[in-house]
Amino acid sequence: MSLLNGKVTFITGASAGIGKACAEVFAREKSNLILTARRIERLKSLGKKLVKDYGIKVKFIQLDVRNYVQVEEVINSLDNNWNKIDFLINNAGLSRGLDKIHEGKKEDWDEMIDTNVKGLAYVTRHVLPLMVNRKKGHIINIGSTAGHDVYPAGNVYAATKFAVKALSQSTRYDVLDKGIKVTGVDPGMVETEFSIVRFRGDKERAKKVYTGIKPLSPKDVAETVLFCATRPQNVNINQVILTPLAQASSTQIVRKDK
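The structure assignment produced for this chain is given below.
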């Protein structure tokens, strides 16, 4: 029997990319899922498929993690069937633009900070007390290699991911005596909607980001998250950095000519 059988996993940003892949991998291991994202129709479609394929329970909730009141209301409204959250995967995040700091756009900065930092903090603030009360649970924050080393024009995005790393580390300290695990999973180049979102739908520009390399897939990251979630009770994976073979850091990338 899977170690996740019957466990409850709460995933933010579950409608696409890494969040969706985590939902699929955790469903495969028989975890019941609370799937949240802004795009509710995508969640419904995903949730119905996972119920059919794996016989699990799925609750899907339209949620904008940037909205503190909405986050609070959603989590407080969970009944006893759903509020015993075993895993929180803080995945919701994005990048907007690729501008030098002196040419950056305030609206891009606000969206990244509000989603990547404040949104993660908001969700953690309201899920973590449920874990503290039970003295069990596991928070897994999806960060980035950009939270370890910066790259040209990555300024504010990198700053948000350094903040995610700091939040992972400090949360671990805060609940060290509570029997709760905290993990940061920090991938490098993953082929998702990330670059399409960054470039506001410019698919041709987004495609060039991955030219000449084989990037990570969302499933690669999800399987790493699963590994962290299924270690023995006495083991906490504090941090994982994973990259494609051709990438050693945010700036050190080897591309092959076609």
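Interim note for the steering committee: The mean pLDDT is 94. The two ends are 45 Å apart (CA to CA).
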